[in-house]
Amino acid sequence: MKLLSQLRTSSFQLALLYMVVFATSVFILLAFIYWRTAGFMAAQTDETIEAEIAGLAEQYRGRGVNGLITIIRERVARDPNAKSIYLLTTDDFLKLAGNIETWPEGSRSESGWINFTLDESVGWTGAKRLARGRIFEVQGGLRLLVGRDVDELTNLKRVIETAINWGMGITLALALLGGFMMSRSTTRRIEVINNTSRRIMNGHLSLRIPTRGTDDDFDQLAGNLNQMLDRIVYLMEGIRHVSDSIAHDLRTPLTRLRNQLENTLMAVDNDEAREQAGRAVAEADQLLATFNALLRIARLETRGNTADMKPVALDELVADAGELYEALAEDKEQTFKQSLAPDVMLEGDRDLLFQMISNLIDNAIKYTPEHGTIGVNVRKEGGEAVFEVSDSGIGVPDDEKDQVFQRFYRVGKSRSLPGNGLGLSLVSAVAEIHKGRIILTDTYPGEDLPGLTVTVRMPAFNGIGKRIKTAQAELPAGTDEPRNAPEISSH
């Protein structure tokens, strides 16, 4: 798998392109060397044949036909290895002199050059060999063939071709190996940057990308990214300081205002004034809930995965939340169904997980009309712990499913219902801390009320942990485990 990912990297593709250019250059160079070498040896052979023809022609002019026959026989006798090929015949192909018996068959050019094979068909008694020669007519109707054995030249060409092929293969192998090693070195440094960046995105803001001290391109990139991270951390600290100041300066006055409105509600006797004061208290509660939700999301996003992670029984946590919300579903005459597989463990922050579960169940009940159906499911699939809440409510359009996790975003159909658009933002932040992913699908696709199914998948706990209820049973008498109250929030 790592090899396939290595082959898909841009550094390897660049190295591969360099390899192709390098291999093409080597091939052109070797082809040029071959062309020059083979051409030179072939030209030498032709020049040798031409020189012999010139010598024979001179003998013919000085000594006539008999002298030509004599010199051919002498040359044949001096050349026991038969490097030179001679054949002199009459016009009716009767042999007069030479070391072959008959005219060979072969490819013949218009200039008289012929490539042929020395074998039994021409009266050759030795091993089969390749030859090249030239044919021309002598005055008096005689025919003369002068040639050379080119078998060694042909074999040499084959050796050169084989060497070129092996050279190209070795060149490609070395280029591929060099490209792989070069891309691997580059990929390692890029992977260091990617891994550090992912850890920083998960909340480890104190980390910085390591450098080698070589001041190369990667060191310069790492230095720039580190400076950018320092600046981001500085700005985030400033924002966090402002948020804390807002929390200190506004939450207390809001709480005081809410308490005064509640005292007014209890003091007034007029029904209309009591109703107005009640609405004001509800608005103040909504403001406080929105403000607390914003601060909670901000804290979750900045703390990353540094939450108090312990083995948690997801099925028991969902069962506890179900007990709280089942009565709320009964008030709306909704059917509340639970399917909780036992022993579904994950490593997480119990309080944060309870908030996430409560928000999702509360949303399902809130946005499902009376007589609807709410389904809560816990199961384990492979190495994942799965928590799923489905409803038969108004649902979320497909083009808005990716936007509902944004702060204050509300689906158009739900704007008439109370809420602040922060519920799923909080759910998303909790899921991210637990390395989970959220999937939104329609419960009843194509229906007027398609409903919504929210599936949260988180890594299951693979260690050997005790069940939560067992641990609670071992607590000293009178000890209660603290639990956060459920949050009332919206899509």
TrEMBL record:
<keyword id="KW-0418">Kinase</keyword>
<keyword id="KW-0808">Transferase</keyword>
<keyword id="KW-0812">Transmembrane</keyword>
<dbReference type="InterPro" id="IPR050428">
    <property type="entry name" value="TCS_sensor_his_kinase"/>
</dbReference>
<feature type="coiled-coil region">
    <location>
        <begin position="254"/>
        <end position="290"/>
    </location>
</feature>
<keyword id="KW-0472">Membrane</keyword>
<feature type="compositionally biased region" description="Basic and acidic residues">
    <location>
        <begin position="480"/>
        <end position="491"/>
    </location>
</feature>
<dbReference type="InterPro" id="IPR005467">
    <property type="entry name" value="His_kinase_dom"/>
</dbReference>
<dbReference type="InterPro" id="IPR003594">
    <property type="entry name" value="HATPase_dom"/>
</dbReference>
<dbReference type="Pfam" id="PF00512">
    <property type="entry name" value="HisKA"/>
</dbReference>
<feature type="domain" description="HAMP">
    <location>
        <begin position="184"/>
        <end position="237"/>
    </location>
</feature>
<dbReference type="InterPro" id="IPR004358">
    <property type="entry name" value="Sig_transdc_His_kin-like_C"/>
</dbReference>
<keyword id="KW-0902">Two-component regulatory system</keyword>
<feature type="transmembrane region" description="Helical">
    <location>
        <begin position="12"/>
        <end position="35"/>
    </location>
</feature>
<protein>
    <recommendedName>
        <fullName>histidine kinase</fullName>
        <ecNumber>2.7.13.3</ecNumber>
    </recommendedName>
</protein>
<dbReference type="InterPro" id="IPR003660">
    <property type="entry name" value="HAMP_dom"/>
</dbReference>
<keyword id="KW-0597">Phosphoprotein</keyword>
<dbReference type="InterPro" id="IPR036890">
    <property type="entry name" value="HATPase_C_sf"/>
</dbReference>
<dbReference type="GO" id="GO:0000155">
    <property type="term" value="F:phosphorelay sensor kinase activity"/>
</dbReference>
<keyword id="KW-0175">Coiled coil</keyword>
<feature type="transmembrane region" description="Helical">
    <location>
        <begin position="163"/>
        <end position="182"/>
    </location>
</feature>
<dbReference type="Pfam" id="PF02518">
    <property type="entry name" value="HATPase_c"/>
</dbReference>
<dbReference type="GO" id="GO:0005886">
    <property type="term" value="C:plasma membrane"/>
</dbReference>
<keyword id="KW-1133">Transmembrane helix</keyword>
<dbReference type="Pfam" id="PF00672">
    <property type="entry name" value="HAMP"/>
</dbReference>
<dbReference type="InterPro" id="IPR036097">
    <property type="entry name" value="HisK_dim/P_sf"/>
</dbReference>
<dbReference type="InterPro" id="IPR003661">
    <property type="entry name" value="HisK_dim/P_dom"/>
</dbReference>
<feature type="domain" description="Histidine kinase">
    <location>
        <begin position="245"/>
        <end position="462"/>
    </location>
</feature>
<feature type="region of interest" description="Disordered">
    <location>
        <begin position="472"/>
        <end position="491"/>
    </location>
</feature>
